[in-house]
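Instructor's aside before we start: the two examples that follow are unrelated to each other. I chose them only because their records fit on one page, so don't look for a connection. First example below.
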Amino acid sequence: MNQISVCLSTRNPILFGSGTSARTGEELGRMGVTKALVVCDKGVKDAGIVEKILKSLQGAGIEYVIYDGVQPDPPDWSCEEAAELGRKEGVNGVVAVGGGSSLDTGKAARVLLTNPSPISNYYLAHEAVFPDEATMYPIIVIPTTAGTGSEATPGGVITDTTTKQKHNVPCASNLGIVDPELTLGLPLGVTSVTAADALCQAVEAYTSNKPNEISDIMCERAIELIGNCLPKVFENPNELEARKGVHLAATLSGLGLMGPFCHIPHEIGLIIGTLFDIPHGSACGATLPEALEFIAPALPEKVAHITKLLSGEDVYGKSHGEIGRAAYDSVCKLYEKISFPKLSEYVTREELLAAVPQIMDPYPFVHCPRELTAKDVTAILEKAYDR
């Protein structure tokens, strides 16, 4: 019998377990939702995954309207479009189904259903206007990829199409439903880059200069699960227990970010991803081996432990250089097993290095355990490109 577990984080309750998505309608009914805005992309809809959720809503007597125009790295206009449909149809709840882009679009749409447009009003960087959570309708988020852990984080990342920058919009979810069965059939290419995103989040939070013991426990487990389970998914994509392990790792990586923050891979990834249209997981994962090698002198014990969790190799007590190289190799070997894409598939070397000034502007890497210069970033990018 499948085991179902409930995790209560500080803001986002999470229902985890095989088959839990069948409870979506029941949970919406508990929240008083009578008509829901279902947010997804066309790929998830065409794959029949959304149909499973719709049957659950129908069984609970909940009406719905579908917005299937989700875009990768969701642009501001698509969030406005989804919210406009929801307001027009008189919804009083949101269900976001899909990868991180769908979940982030759903969260932004939820904000705009009861708060004035544009979504740029609520970028955290502005620190001026916060949406009125007391008036917002309930939202359930259902991830179908094991990557961002957005079901566990109190916000979404939106791309401003005017400035070409990404911004966080505050929005917790009323419930995250994490059903590993929904990842069965997920293409291996998507599995690879989304899992790399989860691994980056766990590693970066674990090695942040603002760590905490609770976060460390979740991040350690996430890293271990990815090291053990992700290769098994690539050996047998339909092995549910392996898929479950990777999905749990993604959720834990999202929970692990609640306190510590990301640094080298994500801060570089956010810039090069936007500049060169590189998928988020690919952009962030691109520099993870080099980042671990770079920070090893600052956190040798933690980097050695990451190596042990990922590959089983014991490098505790060795020199900083040896630990850094072992950590680098452990990620590279994992990337080989999962056919992780190379930077050269997206951008030329010259274009990549030309982005260094934008990466360094205005004050990046404040959560990195070791200070970086533009020269350091250039060296990291050169090594990552040539790998």
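Example two begins here.
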Amino acid sequence: MNLHSLKPADGATKKTKRIGRGQGSGKGGTSTRGHKGAKSRSGYSRKSGFEGGQMPIYRLLPKRGFKNINRVEYSAINLSTLQMLSEKLSVSAIDMEVLMANGLAKKKSLVKILGNGELTAKIDVTAHAFSASAKEAIEKNGGTANLIQIKTEEQN
């Protein structure tokens, strides 16, 4: 075998269809584009969402709502969950590490403590936000509600 004798396997390559090369080729004249109309012309490109002249679906359906780009998404944790966690682990302080270790928060998630449920334990809670009722319930039992400073785009 020599380099000059290498060639593709039989049937591996096809000849390209040579369009618009005269009537003798069988693909001359209209060059397989049919007669007249926008699709037969050079430079034709259909707009995305074009439905053949019918009113497109994106114009038929009404606009609804909007997405607030400044929204801050919190993972909500209730007082009942904190009570259960303090009883299970017998800890007096709950912070992000404890919540992550027990699968209640992810590393980059922001946590807000909500006031649903009963809290009887004295716990020091550290989170990104607290509802008024949750903060009141924590402090009523002698615990503290510590805020974690949220980094914004300006601070980075």
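The mean pLDDT is 91.
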